[in-house]
Design a protein that fits this description.
Elements: E1 4-8, H1 13-25, E2 30-33, H2 41-46, E3 55-58, E4 61-64, H3 66-76, H4 87-103, H5 109-112, H6 115-136, H7 151-155, H8 157-170, H9 181-192, H10 194-197, H11 203-222
Parallel strand pairs: 1-2
Antiparallel strand pairs: 1-3, 3-4
Length: about 220
């Protein structure tokens, strides 16, 4: 039997992308929690370029970067496919996955910034929500690809869970459900899937952590 290990960090949405994919596929794995302030020699060995999580190790071979890992998992274990079989539908899915990857890093800026800089970040988030509302979720779809969760849904996990958490930590409101009814319904559908619902990081724990981080950042700026 294949030996699968996942190096991760408890609050990382990119790590949870991989956790969900493995669980949707029914793949057993060993999870190894990393202290990102004191990274293990194994993590640095397996990901010497970026030195980040997640890292999937399959039979001793490391695969890095969450989207690359998702593609690898989907090819190695074809059951419960996460990408469409049709070439065009797959190309469209990959476009939106890249869009989500490109936009997702701005989420951290919400609690790291203030005033005009923060408003610029909010503007970017609203543009991402508008794209989802007007282009990704058209046609009354339950999920991004139709009736079943797929890799596009997983890629947009920042909106489903982490955006609300960071709003709380930053003390602001970006997402207003009445302005984005399709996105609002999608969030409910996504977080109702048992594998997602029962494998989410603790919201209060993340909010407390991010508030401490924000205080540290503001203190360092003022000094």
């Amino acid at each position: 039997m294949a030996v699968v290990k996942l190096f991760g960090a408890w609050l990382s949405p990119y790590v949870f992308r991989v956790i969900w994919a493995l669980k949707l596929k029914g793949i057993p794995y060993e999870y190894i929690e990393e202290d990102l302030s004191n990274k293990s020699p194994l993590l640095l060995q397996y990901n010497p370029i970026h030195k980040k999580v997640p890292v999937l190790v399959h039979d001793g071979k490391p695969v890095c970067e969450s989207t690359v890992i998702l593609r690898y998992v989907d090819e190695i274990w074809p059951q419960n496919p996460l990408l469409p079989a049709d070439p065009y539908d797959r190309a469209v899915a990959l476009f939106w996955i890249k869009f989500a990857d490109d936009k997702s890093p701005i989420i951290a800026k919400l609690y790291r910034t203030e005033d005009e800089e923060q408003q610029a970040v909010v503007k970017e988030w609203l543009e991402m929500l508008e794209a989802m509302e007007e282009h990704v979720l058209i046609g009354g779809k339950k999920f991004c690809g139709g009736d079943e969760i797929n890799m596009v849904d997983i890629a947009f996990c920042m909106i489903a869970h982490w955006l609300g958490v960071i709003e709380d930590a930053a003390g602001l409101k970006v997402f207003e459900p009445h302005k984005f009814p399709r996105v609002s319904s999608w969030i409910q559908n996504f977080k109702s899937v048992p594998i997602i619902k029962y494998n989410l990081p603790n919201t209060d724990k993340i909010v407390a952590y991010l508030k401490r981080r924000k205080e540290m950042l503001l203190t360092s700026k003022s000094n």
